[in-house]
Q: What sequence folds into this?
């Protein structure tokens, strides 16, 4: 299966394992809750999907790499204690709490989450001293004297032996206690994630043309050579940073992430051309509906590789605008719900303390999700944006004596108008891009590619589902787009007039 299918299967498994009957007992008994064993090549995204699952299900996540654990650190240290058996006092050995089990209890206490995922990576690389204890752990969820708390699902992962010399192949007795999943690399699945994660457009354009360069691991006379999904993602972050600081991007930099020399050289050459296209076409001018005089003819005469690069540049800049619109929308909606709740009970004397209380509540929720290990970047941006906006209101109303809520309403209405203008500007950029592509390439394969790029990006589909695009609908009849049940405008009108 690919990594997206694995993510779906793991979510379904966790939902089943955490399901309880009317008496509060787990429908699938603990002893039958086989730990998941996710095996796949390095850098394929096994750890990343665990973070995504925890965030989407709002459960805690504790991650450990088993490569450094010994029997003592995983099970606990032995100590002597006095006990009485059949009227006779005896000295017996017990164990301190496992470091891993202790970490779970600590996260539960700090995050307020009683359910979660214990993710043990490199499980097939455990030390010789720990290996005999793994059967007990896998079947009965125990390390030493302590059991993994109820409500915690065990997910393990490892690399196949050809990628890691430390791997020990599990025997049938061990495998028979695991829910075994094999994950294989798949560029098209990864690209959907990469597009929404705003990976550098040069990387996606290059891989669209050179799909075999997405993932490679080989052994040569010069040593190991490898290209992984993690490598491309890390290279993307480096490229963005280098461009922001106007540092020179060299082949040496690329080879720090892409260690197959031929692919690194090819990407370096492609990146240079890509930067040339970025400058030659003045993409921002095209989005603004004011393409340079020779831009259309230049696009008509371009090679297919060049056309793909231009479309990737369009997608990158458009989706950046779409993301800003969606996040701002979420911030305003979250804030307006808080303000509507406050309005019912607040007076000029209590308004400041009530807003401050909500700020503290959101800050606490952020902290708890960080402690739980399930706070994704988008949610943190929304919550932080809401805190900043509410903080501005606490500062502004502290300077006036009356009509405090009215001043907030007035300011919020202005922000809403600015947000609507932001949406209109992004929609206009999208329409201008469609117009340019039609003028240059009619309704050919370039248009199909552009619409496909939009369909694969969560921010693009999110923007279009909220605010529409006649051009997109014209070229993609299959996507079902739903209207929002309650628009932000209606929320604001209710706040102002209610």
A:
């Amino acid at each position: 299966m690919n990594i997206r299918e694995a993510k779906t299967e793991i979510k379904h498994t966790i939902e089943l394992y955490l399901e309880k009957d009317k008496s509060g007992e787990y429908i699938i008994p603990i002893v039958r809750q086989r730990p998941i064993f996710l095996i796949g090549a390095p850098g394929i995204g096994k750890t990343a999907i665990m973070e995504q699952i925890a965030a989407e299900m709002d459960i805690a996540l504790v991650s450990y790499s088993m490569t450094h654990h010994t029997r003592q650190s995983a099970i606990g240290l032995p100590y002597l204690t006095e006990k009485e058996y059949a009227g006779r006092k005896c000295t017996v050995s017990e164990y301190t709490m496992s470091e891993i089990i202790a970490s779970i209890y600590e996260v539960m206490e700090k995050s307020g989450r009683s359910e979660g995922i214990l993710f043990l990576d490199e499980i097939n690389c455990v030390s010789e001293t720990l290996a005999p204890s793994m059967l007990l752990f896998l079947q009965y969820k125990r390390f030493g004297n302590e059991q993994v708390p109820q409500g915690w699902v065990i997910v393990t992962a490892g690399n196949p032996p050809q990628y890691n010399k430390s791997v020990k192949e599990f025997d049938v007795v061990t495998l028979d206690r695991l829910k075994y999943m094999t994950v294989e690399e798949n560029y098209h699945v990864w690209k959907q994630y990469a597009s929404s994660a705003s990976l550098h457009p040069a990387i996606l354009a290059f891989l669209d043309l050179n799909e075999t360069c997405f993932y490679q691991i080989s052994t040569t006379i010069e040593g190991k050579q490898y290209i992984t999904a993690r490598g491309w993602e890390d290279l993307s972050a480096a490229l963005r940073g280098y461009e922001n600081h106007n540092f020179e991007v060299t082949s040496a930099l690329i080879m720090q992430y892409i260690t197959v020399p031929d692919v690194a050289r090819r990407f370096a050459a492609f990146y240079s051309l890509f930067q040339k296209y970025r400058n030659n076409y003045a993409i921002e001018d095209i989005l603004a509906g004011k393409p340079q005089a020779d831009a259309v003819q230049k696009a008509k005469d371009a090679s297919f590789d060049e056309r793909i690069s231009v479309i990737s540049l369009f997608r990158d800049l458009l989706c950046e605008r779409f993301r800003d619109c969606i996040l701002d929308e979420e911030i305003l909606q979250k804030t307006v719900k808080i303000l509507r709740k406050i309005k019912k009970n607040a007076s000029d004397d209590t308004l400041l303390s009530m807003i401050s209380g909500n700020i503290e509540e959101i800050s606490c929720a952020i902290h708890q999700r960080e402690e739980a290990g399930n706070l994704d970047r988008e949610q943190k941006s929304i919550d932080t944006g809401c805190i900043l906006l509410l903080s501005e209101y606490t500062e502004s109303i502290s300077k006036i004596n009356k009509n405090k809520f009215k001043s907030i309403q007035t300011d919020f209405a202005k922000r809403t108008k600015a947000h609507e203008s932001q949406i209109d500007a992004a929609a206009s950029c999208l329409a201008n891009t469609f117009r340019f592509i039609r003028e240059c390439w009619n309704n050919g394969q370039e248009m199909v590619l552009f619409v496909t790029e939009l369909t694969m990006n969560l921010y693009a589909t999110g923007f279009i589902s909220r605010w529409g695009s006649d051009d997109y609908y014209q070229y993609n009849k299959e996507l079902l787009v739903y209207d929002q049940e309650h628009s932000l405008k209606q929320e604001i009108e209710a706040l102002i007039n209610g």
